[in-house]
Amino acid sequence: MKYFLFFLLFPVFLQAQQPQVCSDSLMSLVRVLASDSLAGRLPGTEGYNKALNYSMAFLKKHGIKSAGENFCPQQFPIDINVIDSAQFLIETGRDMMQLVAGVDFSVRGYSGSGNVEADVVFCGYGTASDYQGVDVKGKIVLVFKSNPPYNKDLPAFTIRRHADMAWSHGAKAIVFVTLPNQTNPQKPIGSVMHGEGPMHEDMPQVQISVEKADYLLSNSGFTLSQLQSLIDSTKMAHSIAVNKRANVMVQASYSAEGFSHNVVGILEGSDPVLKNEYILIGAHLDHVGTIGHNVIYHGANDNASGSAAVMELARAFSLQRAKMKRSIIFVLFGSEEKGLVGSGFLAQNLPVPKEQIVAAFNMDCIGYGDSLMVGNGKSCPNLWALADSTSIELGNRISPRTWAGGGADLTPLFEQGIPGLYFVTTNSYAHLHLPTDTPETINIALYTDMVKLVAAITNKLVIEIK
Predict the structure, then answer these.
(1) Omega before 294 within 30 of 0, i.e. cis
(2) 10 Å Cβ neighbour count for 339?
(3) What is the distance between the alpha carbons of residues 198 and 341, in angstroms, rounded to a whole number?
(4) pTM of model > 0.85
(5) Pairing of strands 240-267, 114-122
(6) Which end of the chain, N or C, is less surrounded by CB atoms within 10 Å?
(7) Please, what CATH class does the domain formed by 19-80+255-462 belong to?
(8) What is the dotted CATH code of the domain comprising 81-253?
(9) Are 314 and 453 in contact (CB under 8 A)?
(10) pLDDT in tens, 385-434
């Protein structure tokens, strides 16, 4: 009988060896990070500083020590732009129709300020050839948020470069719209991904929905889809006056001398030799802020989910510290949304020699979707095999799809030669960079399974070392 009882309880004994991930704890952390009071966690704002201070206090409470004097927090320079207010009006014939911020239009994160009422000119893909033969001086230009697919010789698309092209031709504001003929055209999103190019502090830069762009074009004789088809099929510009006026107003506060922060803490292992080897677990803390006081991009899935997971894993492993052989570095990256700025800075300023980091795990958008996915497996087949076998043990198979070359904040670390995996969910982006990315959309069961997977893999690398 006692042997039967042992085997009956064996799964419980196994579970007891694992760091215990708690769904309630995860969701409590997500709700804090995605709350109204943190206002979208835009770096350089009070909201981001609240998130920063909250996360540092949480890690300290659970015995996670700063990786060094300059790591908690680790400061690095960025330029900062805060959108204080905005409006978008379109002429209807009798009066002006006001668009809804966050639904009909969004403001680009590095928009300049201005109040422009003017005629609108459609300028295709916004390249140099699209401005030939049309007068846009003092006007508002409407352009596709993309390079033309038939011209592979152009530099990569950036918001700033295309805004600069419009500005250099005399335009006073620029309106971006996604390509209407693609599957599921992008809604107007909040974004600070502006890329290379000058900052024009006097030029409003917004994104409009396909539906409202079609309304702008309603006096032109074309729909947006027809214009895309015409340009793509002929591979020639077809810029036209749309015969409507619009009013675009943005008030923004810009600083070229701003800064953001990473949080970097260490939970030290107990083995006298192996404690000098590390597993790095990270996620980005920042998001894209607000449009004034009316629209908040809460960023629950992107990426309060990943940040909360880092903190929950810190809590769970802090209870296992006596069993830990290797050490764990916990990182919350700043300014991922601007273009992997925080992880790029950390990769160049690591708290330990890179050769001592056995693996880096990054979590980004892990709270919404329908299955688990692990990236960078083709570059790190041994780690991929470990993730796959561990997921089978847990009864939650990961997607067979993976890739090479990193992914999100893992990329700069991988480029330094650090092996790693990127954890994300499939079909994760329905609310990406929209005001609807709130805690209510989190798939709690899927989210918990993902964090348990990361915990189990980490456990094998820091405790169950064979």
Answers:
(1) no
(2) 16
(3) 18
(4) yes
(5) antiparallel
(6) C
(7) alpha beta
(8) 3.50.30.30
(9) no
(10) 999 999 999 998 899 999 999 999 999 999 999 999 999 999 989 999 99
